[in-house]
Amino acid sequence: MENIHYLEEQFQARIDKGERIEPRDWMPEKYRKTHIRQISQHAHSEIVGMLPEGNWITRAPSLRRKVGLLAKVQDEAGHGLYLYSAAETLGISRDEMTMQLLTGKAKYSSIFNYPTLSWADIGAIGWLVDGAAIINQVMLTRTSYGPYARAMVRICKEESFHQRQGYEIMLTLCKGSEAQKAMAQDALNRFWWPSLMMFGPRDEDSPNTAQSVKWKIKRQTNDELRQRFVDITAPQADYLGITIPDPDLKWNEERGHYDFGKIDWEEFWQVVKGNGPCNKERIAARTDAWEEGKWVREAALAYAAKQAQAVEVKQAV
Ligand code: BYC
């Protein structure tokens, strides 16, 4: 017991000094579990996040838009893979993580349970969802667990391209016909509040924040990041000439921040619990992908076994 306390103190001292924790280093069990939870949920979000956008690849309005969207969706797959690999360094397998997603044990971001109804939604997702993701993830490039922090560096570079492609879609629509501008406004109306929810519950309702800040997993709280997102995004909406659907959104000179209205937390928890507009559809799509990929996994294993056997025979000769 004494020994554990000593190890924990040493561990906290390393974190306080700003040292990175690496896979073979001693770490408290809860630190390991928190990382498995967060990194795997982050990976699942990247993979599930491909679905609402993939929905528009065949219907992108031009070849240029199609190529851009294809590249973005492929990037999300890459992000999922780096993150699953980072989580595997903590002693969980990719199969176990997949099972946790498919059985509802592991969460993924609430935002991907909303439908993409028009092409403007692809613009709004790039602008708002990737914009929110960057704000959260730039913080994570300095997170205390080495493999996670390193994965985040590349992910953030790609997310910044995603955000720009989304904003450029919005800009084009807002400079277009009345109908196109109305489509952009409608997408903003539907994606604004769910984007604010991406940052997670209010700090006072966030059970994980205090410990995660102490371990420098999180360097800023959910509310701090949400405020930063509003401060950055409100002027961008003004530039587009469309209106954020919040009558209480107002610059507060004294605070040096935008004030904003109340988030519907009941909606957030309903979506997190599986009752959002597309939760069932998203999990069904991932379950199909898992089942349809079975033969590929089996073929890869059979091939690896055959190769290993061939090496054994060669060594025996
Ligand atoms: N949706 O104590 P809290 C992207 C859960 S971007 C669903 O504050 P924590 C992408 C939370 O897991 C999106 N669940 O938790 C972008 C916890 O439940 P459990 C992914 C949520 O972990 C564009 C409970 O609520 N980004 O991938 O300290 C295209 C209490 O919350 C949500 C990341 O995953 C939510 N929005 O803070 C494609 C970033 N919010 O686990 C893809 C990494 C909270 O105890 N993750 N919950 O059962 C994080 O930074 C943190 O995990 C969070 C939550 C800020 C999200």
Spell out the key features of this protein.
mainly alpha; binds benzoyl coenzyme A; 317 residues; two-stranded antiparallel sheet; globular
Provide a concise account of the structure shown.
The protein is mainly α. Helix content is 69%, strand content 2%. Strands 1-2 form a two-stranded antiparallel ribbon.
Overall average pLDDT: 96
Biggest sheet statistics = 2 strands, antiparallel
Gross morphology: globular
- Class of secondary structure makeup: mainly alpha
Helix content: 55-70%
- Find the count of extended strands (DSSP E, 2+ residues): 2
Q: For the CA atoms, what is the radius of gyration?
A: 22 Å
Our estimate of the beta-strand percent is under 5%
Discrete helix count: 13
The sequence of SSEs as H and E is HHHHHHHHHHEEHHH
**Could you give the distance between the termini?**
54 Å
Query: Which strand order do you get reading across the main beta sheet?
Result: 1-2
State the low-pLDDT regions, or none.
none
Catalogue the ligands. Answer: benzoyl coenzyme A
Descriptive report:
This protein is 69% helix and 2% strand. A two-stranded antiparallel sheet has the order 1-2. The chain has 317 residues and is mainly α. It has helices spanning 2-16, 29-48, 50-54, 63-88, 94-102, 119-140, 146-174, 178-197, 209-214, 222-240, 265-275, 279-292, 294-316; strands spanning 250-252, 257-259. Residues 37-38, 41-42, 45-46, 49, 76, 107, 109-110, 129-130, 133, 136, 197-201, 206-209, 212, 222, 272 line the site of benzoyl coenzyme A.
